[in-house]
Design goal:
Elements (H helix, E strand, L loop, with lengths): L7 E7 L4 E6 L6 E7 L13 E5 L2 E5 L6 H14 L9 E8 L10 E2 L2 H9 L8 H14 L5 E5 L9 H4 L5 H7 L8 H15 L7 E7 L3 E7 L2 E5 L20 H10 L4 H10 L2 H6 L4 H9 L3 H25 L4 E5 H6 L1 H7 L12 H5 L6 E2 L8 E4 L4 H13 L1
The structure holds adenosine-5'-diphosphate.
């Protein structure tokens, strides 16, 4: 990248078997290249490529197996060079890393040092599926780009200031304190970004807006935000609490775990797998993707219909709770894969609430529009909105802001 070119930040979201990345300008939001490494550490007999890279108007694919995160990023960096992006040049201002759990320690975007990496690693007991994978991404990127500042942006940060009553579990405080047990909340980067966009769309100072954000993707979470500060959220110690998700149960009586351990003889690993991987829509209907769920419902599949019913019921329960918690609400916003694309979910989540000032306009709701928009009728008491989330842009902006 030559001098004078727009500022570029590389955003890396490193998961256990995948790495998603984008090279973008934090000011304009323009993405100049992006891609994904898949099936890291798995044997690759045939089928889809392990790395797909889009840049310079072209698509690049890599088919070979990817042994680990470092190997994946090396392939990615080669593909960047082939698509005309020199990451080792001076144009790359920073690398922004999504980190899932910041615990009590991290609640701001943080410049990565050895000590920061060690602390993120230490938090792995709170996020065993996520933080170790995040660290692998960070370490690989640091080795490949030793001279570029690396910034960690935490999924829990936006919820760090939750009121005590909202973040405290009603268990023995000594046990809770000894093990870091409290509600942390996740998807914070998305809730923060989307709530900021909502204030803009309403033409108001964020400090004056009370709002509910529904992030409905594969993972799903709701948040209540008063004047720009989160006052409640549906995810807790881990991203397992709250709404029904693609493969996660969300809220469940903790007695169910005890019962399964005592009467079904299930161990911790089996219960973990049950609740995180084999529950939610998948557990109820056999599919975790909402589009497939819709197809099953259309064929009259009773299990799929029940799964949809449970999903909507849980969502409405949180909506009711947050309406009461906030008292006065200016906006309810849908975001992420399901929230942005599924008009039926939006209509069903808010059906029959006109007396509370909440109405979804059927024409606006089903319009083929991908931009941030109102789906409530003009002049509604509570604005109902669809706002595309953009966690990569939010991470890029946070990283750029920190190094400035
Ligand atoms: P993740 O949590 O993995 O980031 P996403 O935000 O991409 O998840 O959301 C994935 C969910 O969104 C899936 O259930 C998928 O069916 C749904 N979804 C994504 N795109 C569409 C679309 N165009 N129409 C309907 N549903 C969609």
């Amino acid at each position: 990248m030559s001098a004078g070119e727009a500022m570029q930040v590389l955003v890396i979201n490193s998961g256990s078997s995948s790495i998603k990345y984008q090279l973008l300008d934090p000011n304009s939001g323009t993405v100049s290249a992006h891609g994904q490494v898949s099936r890291i550490g798995e044997s690759v007999a045939s089928g889809a490529p392990t790395v797909e890279h889009y840049g310079g108007g072209r698509t690049f694919e890599h088919d070979g197996p990817i042994a680990d995160h470092a190997a994946g990023l090396r392939v990615v960096f080669d593909l960047f060079a082939r698509s005309g992006h020199d990451l080792t040049g001076e144009g790359l201002a920073a690398v922004g890393h999504r980190v899932v759990h910041g615990g009590e320690v991290f609640y701001r975007p943080t410049l990565v040092t050895d000590a920061v990496v060690a602390a993120i690693e230490e938090l792995s007991s709170l996020a065993p599926l996520h933080n170790p994978a995040n660290v692998m991404g960070i370490e690989s990127a640091r080795r490949l780009l030793p001279d570029v500042p690396q910034v960690a942006v935490f999924d829990t940060a936006f919820f760090h200031g939750l009121p005590d009553a909202a973040k405290t579990y009603a268990i023995d405080t000594k046990v809770a304190a000894a093990h870091g047990i409290r509600r942390y909340g996740f998807h914070g980067t998305s809730h923060e970004y989307v709530s900021g966009q909502v204030a803009r769309l309403l033409g108001r100072d964020p400090a004056t807006v009370n709002q509910i954000v529904l992030h409905l993707g594969n993972g799903a979470s709701a948040s209540a935000i008063r004047g720009g500060r989160a006052v409640d959220t549906s995810m807790g110690l881990t991203p397992l609490e709250g709404l029904v998700m693609g493969t996660r149960s969300g809220d469940i009586d903790p007695g169910v775990l005890l019962h399964l351990a005592r009467t079904a003889g299930m161990g911790i690993e089996a219960i973990d797998a049950l609740l995180n991987r084999d529950s939610g829509l998948k557990g109820l209907a056999g599919v975790n993707d909402f589009r497939e769920l819709g197809r099953l419902i259309d064929t009259g599949d009773a299990a799929a219909r029940l799964a949809y019913g449970v999903y909507i019921h849980r969502l409405r329960r949180y909506l009711g709770a947050y309406l009461v918690e906030l008292g006065q609400v200016d906006a309810i916003t849908f975001t992420a894969g399901v929230g942005e694309n599924n008009a039926q979910v939006r209509a069903d989540a808010l059906a029959g609430l006109t007396r509370f000032g909440i109405t979804v306009d059927p024409v606006r709701n089903t319009a083929k529009d991908r931009t941030a928009r109102h789906i409530s009728p003009p002049g509604a008491d509570i604005a109902v909105l669809v706002v595309p989330t953009n966690e990569e842009l939010a991470i890029a902006r946070a990283a750029a802001h920190l190094i400035r």
